[in-house]
Prior knowledge:
The protein folds into 2 domains: 7-145, Toll/interleukin-1 receptor homology (TIR) domain (Rossmann fold); 179-304, no CATH class. The chain has 6 helices and 15 strands. It has helices spanning 17-32, 40-43, 50-60, 70-78, 81-96, 134-145, and strands at 7-11, 36-38, 63-69, 103-109, 126-127, 180-181, 185-191, 198-201, 208-216, 219-223, 229-234, 256-257, 264-269, 274-283, 293-300. The strands form 3 sheets. A 5-stranded parallel beta sheet has the order 2-1-3-4-5, sandwiched between helices. The protein has a 5-stranded mixed beta sheet with strand order 6-8-9-10-12, with no helix packed on it. A 5-stranded antiparallel beta sheet has the order 7-15-14-13-11. α4 packs across α5 (81-96). The chain starts with 6 loop residues before the first strand and ends in a 10-residue tail after the last strand.
Amino acid sequence: MTTPxxxxxxxxxxxxxxxxxxxxxxxxxxxxxxxxxxxxQWDLTLxxxxxxxxxxxxxxxxxxLAVCTxxxxxxxxxxxxxVGYEKMILTAQLMLDITSDRIIPVVRSSVLxxxxxxxxxxxxxxxxxxxxxxxxxxxxxxxDIHGQEVKPRPPLGKNPFxxxxxxxxxxxxxxxxxxxxxxxxxVVTFDYSNNNGRFTFGAGDMxxxxxxxxxxxxxxxxxxxxxSIRSVALAVGxxxxxxxxxxxxxxxxxxxxxxxxxxxxxxxxxAGYFLATKVLAVQVRNSGNALDxxxxxxxxxxxxxxxxxx
Length: 310
């Protein structure tokens, strides 16, 4: 008998496009790992009844992820906007069962103390403020949603002198979806020694399947081998992505480029869109690290323009 997928409602404030893209990427990852996510970005169409969507979503979902940022906390505490409306519904539900763990506060960005709304201040939250710790926090979240204990209770021994067998944490399977970021901008970290060195940025016509391999402790190789890539060039002289006003000025004639930490690559896909990736950090396994990882900031230029200016 197939177990129904857990249904989760994502409650968040539309702070800016980068935050909306982060929420979209989280929701996409959850769906790939067997979670039925209710999200306004793909469940609402023009003319939809927003209050009805909130009411039905919050009442039908088994878990609610409250993505906490400073604007979200302020709106919830003040009872303003859609966040305030969702807070009213959730508060009423909490009054019916104050012992429920149905609402999971997800702290994305906040310097407030506490970093969650007042009505959730007694709830244990999960902290996603450090992008470098995303994978560990995501594993903790997906286990909890699927009802798998993050730290299982060890078996009870017969007496204090019997050594209990160590508890084995459940294994979460991460497939190729771990190497996709559908948002048009953000920060990602991935193991370039897995998935054949491939990582996909964007989606649809704006998709870029990039290819990477080991170079050194301070650099990495990037290739034009995937079929979606037309060219890659080193943005010589640029230190920030938003400084690039014309991506076509850089030399795209080589199959491979090797940027150092701090340098930026400009990619063009076969649909004509441009992508910029800035190398923030490179980790090499044989240098005392556990994984081969690269940490990148990226942005896809809109409407096939060659400018990345904000």
